[in-house]
Fold:
Amino acid sequence: MLGDDFRRIEIVEVGPRDGFQGISQFIPTETKIRFVERLFDAGIHRIEVGSFVSPRAVPQLADTPQVLEASRQLSGLAAQVLVPNEKYGRAAVEAGADVLAFVVSASETHNMRNIRLDHRQSVEAYRRLVDMLTDNVRLRLNIATAFDCPFEGRMDDSAVLSLLDVLAPMRPDVELGLCDTTGRATPEQVGTLFEKARKRLPAVKNWALHAHDTYGLGLANVFAAWRTGVRIFDASFAGLGGCPFAPGATGNVATEDVTWMFSRMGVDTSIDLDELLAIAREGASIPGGTPGGRVRQAFTGGMKARFSQVTAPAET
Amino acid sequence: MLGDDFRRIEIVEVGPRDGFQGISQFIPTETKIRFVERLFDAGIHRIEVGSFVSPRAVPQLADTPQVLEASRQLSGLAAQVLVPNEKYGRAAVEAGADVLAFVVSASETHNMRNIRLDHRQSVEAYRRLVDMLTDNVRLRLNIATAFDCPFEGRMDDSAVLSLLDVLAPMRPDVELGLCDTTGRATPEQVGTLFEKARKRLPAVKNWALHAHDTYGLGLANVFAAWRTGVRIFDASFAGLGGCPFAPGATGNVATEDVTWMFSRMGVDTSIDLDELLAIAREGASIPGGTPGGRVRQAFTGGMKARFSQVTAPAET
Structure:
């Protein structure tokens, strides 16, 4: 998709996976399915509907097979599922997933803590997944902690590029996602790393940014990536998805914020913002969730000007 | 300052003016002074301490003379005051203001509603102010609604440039601030307009962005301006300063968010972020205020990693 159209982007809604997984109170399966249906109806054409993974590891997503089954009824939806290995990948494909997402952390320390594998083991797990996949199943490879790690701090670009050197050639048509796991990436860093990575791996055509908004840099980082030619952005409705390293802080950049920014820029997202805002308001009230984003509040307040409050000379 | 140092910026703290003015409950003068003192102690070297204007127009800022008087005790602080005309400008200079700020809206409709002058009248008011000023008093000219107007919508760049053509030559060493009054500017628009304006007015050396964060674009816009060479940024501690056109929505970009972003980028702001965060937390609890920003919450939650909550394979 990269470069195909300067004024069109794709938003991948990851709320049903990344947003829901950290919520301890179980969200009823029917509620999850309803959110997926409504997000699709609002114009989102790719949704990460859950994870295929041990139900003990992520109890909230134990019903992903049912959510995926329902998602398959939505004609035109690319249903994406996060998988940790070839075994779960095979199950997801058999259950009808259109896109698989696989995660490796640039930081080996984070990789060990997050998925209990060292880099060598993760590379092998990815190789087995790639070997199993047929061409009709799309693959997203997510590089977590691509910019910053809670254990190792700011990541060197070279660490990410070295990892990509090994992984990318295994499946040249892979979609490569760089993830700002901690939300501490800066827009300058995001722009620089994407520029380097694209130059280094010209065979990879599809690049994505998975931005977090924990420190308010979500949209700045999305914009910085867009400037370098990135056209695929992960986001979570209502900004759901807390940050496990900053209790009480918000996580994923909000889908409605990303949609708003691009719509103001005249970039087509295919999404109906009013519909999305209605869904985001409901998402924000899911018990146990940590909603974020800014646009939801701005519009909730109403956009009617209250001119009488403007006293002279007040406004800048 | 522009271009002097790629890795240094100046933050102008506007909270005591733009943040406080919309709060209906009077903030005691001693409290205002204490905030100014603490913000200065945290490393902020320019603070807009209030407005010289009719006390009836902005009752909250009726005590600006006292706040300014106290600010003058802070050696090294540039005390900035917003003034609507030559008369109040003269009073502010006599009271010891180091920098005067004057506002004209790019949108004539907004100018009429905000300060009850048409463009011709505002140009004359500016001319009289410039004629009165001696060289030792610095001048900031703020162009409100430079990107978007609540009445006229998105502003054409040409409208802003035409206005600058008239105003800028009156005082070539003026500092020019472009203000995103509604918070609806996009980073692309911000970058484009600053590039055009700097090219059009090469004699103007000092450019500033006054960003609002109503829709979460504050930092993205600050970054976009910085990329074009802008090195002066208005911000308000705790993000104080509601948006009069979106009740309940936040206004000014938060000083702590701007400080955080630049510190992560290795850009010197001269500000102690921990001190600033402590002040921002108090600012956020001012009765009647509408605090914003993201960094305050992220750090309030504590930055200690809670690794046990990370279940595999969870994080991207």
Remarks:
- The mean pLDDT of chain B is 91.
